[in-house]
Amino acid sequence: MKKYYLRSHYANEVMSRGLLYVVLIGLASIYILPFIWLISSSLKSPSQIFVIPPQWIPNPVIWQNYPEALTLMPFFTYLKNTCIIAFTTVLGSLLSCSLVAYAFARLRWPGRNIFFILLLSTMMIPFPVTMAPLFILFSKIGWINTFNPLIIPAFCASPFLTFLLRQFFRTIPTELSDAAKIDGCTELGIYSRIILPLAKPALAVTAIFEFLFAWNNFLGPLIYLTDQSKYTLAIGLQLFKGAHDTEWALQMAASAVVILPVIVLFFFTQRYFIEGITLTGMKG
């Protein structure tokens, strides 16, 4: 009787797990189909894209669409500008957000909770509200048509990323900091030698979020950059779309190249991303 019960329980568990996998695969297929169509269309001739019923496998495969799309716009100039902005903002966010989060999570000082609430409240202010004042400010100090308005704010600690890091820092046992203080370690030493090495998953999430925002940022470069040689990939792709609005295969090829680094980044860092997101919500 016991063996029958165990077999029945195991069979039900296998069926439940199999059903779960079928549902997850179906949902994943819904999200991945547009990307598959993007890649497929980027390898077709213009006449193949609007064929009914849709032709998922290009025949023939036109690889020339990719080099042609990249040569019709200064792709590598846009790529260089985007990389400069993205990697610099990632560095600035990691430095500023971790420092501010450490102060909110590990240090005791008057008004800490009040200032933390004020920091979080700034997330409720939409960007269009501050867009005009920021433009006036940056124009007064001569930062228009430079990368400074897109880079310097990253060194001022993003409220959302600070909140994520603060939540993770609070999960690290305070006994580690107390032991370090007994050994004569300063707060800066505790921050750099204990907290940061233990917070790699949260730091990875911060870097990924900031990189994705900088890579896909369209409105910021559109407002502050006027020289085409300083445009980013987001602006360049929009210009390419306007200049070649009927050449769908070339547009698909250019779009695929632009989003490829984001996909590669996620696949290489998904373990840290999921771990960091999970752990940042463990303690309030």
Number of domains: 2
Please write the string of helix (H) and strand (E) elements.
Answer: HHHHHHHHHHHHHH
In the CATH classification, which architecture of the largest domain applies?
Answer: Orthogonal Bundle
**Largest sheet report:** none
Poorly predicted sequence stretches spanning 5 or more consecutive residues:
none
Mean pLDDT: 86
Class by SSE composition: mainly alpha
- Tally of strands: 0
- Helix proportion range: over 70%
Compute the number of helices.
Answer: 14
Report the CATH topology name of the largest domain.
MetI-like fold
Give the key terms:
single chain, 284 residues, mainly alpha, MetI-like fold
Kindly summarize this structure in a few lines:
The chain has 284 residues and is mainly α.
Characterization of this structure:
The chain is an all-alpha fold and 284 residues long. The protein folds into 2 domains: 2-49; 70-279, MetI-like (MetI-like fold). The protein is 74% helix and 0% strand. The protein has 14 helices and no strands. It has helices at residues 2-42, 46-49, 65-71, 75-106, 112-121, 127-140, 148-151, 159-169, 174-182, 187-198, 200-216, 219-224, 233-243, 248-279. Helix 3 packs across helix 14 and helix 4 (75-106) runs antiparallel to helix 11 (200-216). It is flat and about 70 Å long. The two termini are 47 Å apart. The relative contact order is 0.14. The mean pLDDT is 86.
